[in-house]
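Lab notes, practical 5.
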Amino acid sequence: MASDTIPIRQGEELDTSAIENYLRKQLPNLPEENLTIEQFSFGKSNLTYQLKMGDWEAVLRRPPLGPVAPKAHDMEREYKILKEISPHFRAAPKPYLFADESVIGSPFFVMERKRGIVLDTDFPEGITPRREICRSLSATMVNHLVELHSIDYTKTKLTEMTKPEGFMERQVIGWIRRYERAETDIVQGDEQLKQWMLKNVSESETPSIIHYDYKLNNAMFNEEMTEMVGLFDWEMTTVGDPLADLGVAMSYWIQPEDPDLLKKGMGKAPVTVTPGFMTRDEFMENYARISGRDLANMNFYQTFAYFKLAVICQQIYYRWKKGQTKDPRFAHLDAFVSSLIQYALYTSEKK
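Output from the prediction step:
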């Protein structure tokens, strides 16, 4: 299997000796070998690195370089969330430790290193994506989302960190504000979309733990692709409306007949366009059947999810335009933002 790590990108280096000293103080019985660090190639938001000492390995997560949006990239919060969820949800990595900015100049946390296959725009070399594999992967994604939503959050400390009452109204208002703070260009239809969401806020009766960034390339599968062995990027996790989580999952679940800009907004289309993957409607029907939840107002949740994705991309584009990141992948995100706003409006008109 191809390596999922790369040499560290210029400007994103870490202080290896400071990290090694800190790890040795905090974690007992580490091997004697020196710490080596490599960077993971995937991810567009937080920076993730592989830590290795002899046969011990772990993953370090830290915020991106430059100023970050308020309340975004909260490493301590993500560490605490994983501490609460990992005992109940096997795919969540176990967190080992959290450090404030005194160690390397930014906060970070260290967690379990999972091994397996991450699917993004291509299947690994040597694997033929047969229809039954694609169908099975779809079903696994549905089942794990239902499983996450069925955890009794009242038995965790998430009750102290979250406020499920009025969740969707706060979300709509909050993401509109984030969008307005990160605006760079005039985007046709954004005012119309904002007004529609404010007038049509929906809220499910039963809150649950939500991942809120649930997508195929945040999951890791075993070599046979029959089981999810890892689920990553828990920074947006909270207790809220499970249908908002489903909506977000569907905003990433691209299908073959989607418009080109939606399919290739970040470059190449994801593997969900491969024959055999469930359509969004099939995914939602399976979710409804297994979870027993009523999806009557899903068009609101899907509309909001496309807007939320547009805001995330706009925040990244804003950082690129201000010179806070030089990653060339972000140079054309403005076109994707515009496309997502248009598609959100189109979704809002569906019955």
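Observations recorded by the TA: The domain at 5-112 is CATH 3.30.200.20 (Phosphorylase Kinase; domain 1). Residues 298-321 form the longest helix (24 residues).
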